[in-house]
Design a protein that fits this description.
The complex is a heterodimer of chains A (about 160) and B (about 290). Chain A has about 160 residues and is an alpha+beta fold. Chain A folds into two domains: about 1-75, Ubiquitin-like (UB roll) (Roll); about 85-155, DNA polymerase, domain 1 (Orthogonal Bundle). Chain A has five helices and five strands. Chain A has helices at about 25-30, 85-95, 105-115, 120-130, 140-155, and strands at about 1-10, 10-15, 50, 55-60, 70-75. A five-stranded mixed β-sheet of chain A has the order 2-1-5-3-4, sandwiched between helices. In chain A, helix 2 packs across helix 5 and helix 3 (about 105-115) packs across helix 5 (about 140-155). The longest helix of chain A is centred in the last third of the chain and has 16 residues, at about 140-155. In chain B, the strands form four sheets. In chain B, strands 4-5-10-6-7 form a five-stranded antiparallel β-sheet. The longest helix of chain B has 19 residues, at about 265-280. Chain B has three domains: about 5-55, Uridine Diphospho-n-acetylenolpyruvylglucosamine Reductase, domain 2 (2-Layer Sandwich), CATH 3.30.43.10; about 60-175, Uridine Diphospho-n-acetylenolpyruvylglucosamine Reductase, domain 3; about 180-285, 2-Layer Sandwich (Enolase-like, domain 1). Chain B has helices spanning about 15-25, 35-40, 80-85, 85-90, 90-100, 105, 110-120, 125-130, 150, 225-235, 240-250, 250-255, 265-280, and strands at about 5-10, 30, 50-55, 65, 70-75, 135-140, 145-150, 155, 160, 165-175, 180-185, 195-205, 210-215, 225. Classes of the chains: A alpha+beta (about 160), B alpha+beta (about 290). The interface of A and B includes residues 19, 22, 57 and 66 of A.
Chain lengths: ~160, ~290
Amino acid sequence: MSEISMTVNGRAVTASAASDVLLADFLRQNLDLTGTHVGCDTSQCGACVVQMDGASVKSCTILAAQAEGADIVTIEGLATNGDMHPMQKAFHDNHALQCGFCTPGMLISAIDLVSKNPDPTEAEVRKGLEGNLCRCTGYHNIVKAVLAAAQDMRG
Amino acid sequence: MKPSPFAYAKPADLAEALRLKADHGDDGTFIAGGQSLVATLNMRLSSPDILIDIGGVTELSGIEVSDGSVRIGALTRHRDLEDSPDIKTHAPLIAEAIAQVAHPAIRNRGTMGGSIAFADPAAELPACILALDGAIEIAGPDGRRKVAAGNFFKGLYDTDLGTGEMITAVEFAADSDDWRTGFDELARRHGDYAMAGLAARLRMDGDSIAEARLVYFAVGDKPMLATGAGGELAGKPLSAETIEAAAASLDSDLEPFDDLHSSAAMKLHLARELTRRVLTKIAGGAQ
C-alpha cells in the first residue's frame, strides 16, 4: 500500500491503495465517487471515462498510481452549485439516457469531443463517441443531445 | 476482471528505468500509456512482479523534424500525433492512420513506443513505420542502437527487443513532394482492431511509380511488406490495370491465417479490395 494524492473535482485528495488498484476503483472504492461506472475493465465500453489533466481517459486502464498528481474530473464534478453542465442539461432535455449506466462516460467523452470540435457534424459526433457503448442502444438521442449541447456551449 | 498484485516503480529518468529493468529482468515490465498492457493485466493474460512506469521520463516525449528526418519520441501520445502540424506535413501516412487507432480516450493515453513494442500484428502504427522504412531507436544496458523496422518485427507480438531494452524513439525520412500516401483498414466496428489494413507509400517519377511500399496488417503474424505487389507497380503508371495487377499478385506476398473474425481466403480478399481502394484514391480517382 502507498499513499496516492491527486486533485479530484477541484479537491485535493490522498488515499492509501495497493499498486494494482485501477483509477476507476480508486475513485469508486477509496473516494466513494461511484458515479464512474466499470463495464468491461478492458477499455472497450467507455463507461469509466473520466477527465485526466483535461483529456478524456478510460479509468479502467490507468493505474491509480499513474494518476499521482493529476487533475481528475468525474461525473460528480460537472455541475456547479447545483446547476447542471450544459452537456448534462442537453442529455436531460433530449432524453439521452435510458438505464443510465453509460451516461457518465458518455458525458465526459462528449465534453472532450465538443471542447476539441465546438461545431461538430452528426457524423463527427458518432465517430467521436465510438469508444462509448450504450447497451440500451439509445444512440439517436445521445447524438441529438451532444449536437444541442455543442450549440448551447458555442453560445 | 482485475489484475493480480504487482509492485510499481516510477523512475525519474532513462538510466534509472533501465537499471530497474536490469534488476528485475523478465519479471519487470515497462508501462507507458498502458492502453494494451493494463487490459491484458486485467484479463490476467500477463502477470509481471513489477511495473516500471516510464511516464515520468519526459525526455522520451516529443516530435522533432530536422534535416529531412522525423523523430518521434517513444512516449509521444497518439493524440499528439493527431494534433501535430509537423506530422500532417511530413508524415501524412501517420496523420491519416492515427484517426483509426482505437477511440479518442485511448488515443489520449496510448503512445508510439508502446504500440511499436507491443507489435500487435493488427495495429496501425507498426505498419506505418515499416511503410515509412523507419528505424527503431533502442536503449539498453549496452547503450543505444538502431534497428530498421524491416528487421524489428519478428512475429506475433515478437520483436528484436532484448530483455533489459526499451524503445526510445522511431525515426524516418520526412516525405518529399514525390511521395504519395494512403491508408485504410476494414474492421467490424470503427475503432476495433482491423480484419485487414493497408499502409501505402508510392514514390512517383512524373506519371510513373518509381517505388512502392505497400504494408498490409492483420493479415499475418506481423506487418507484411508486399514486395511482389510493389514490383508490379514499379516503373508503371498508376492506372486501373496496374492496380489490378498489384492486387492479383498479393497471392505470393501474403499468407494470411484464419482468425475469429475471418478466414484466410476472406483476409486475402479484403487485402485485394484495400489495394484497389487505397491506390485508386491515391490516383485521384473515386473513393
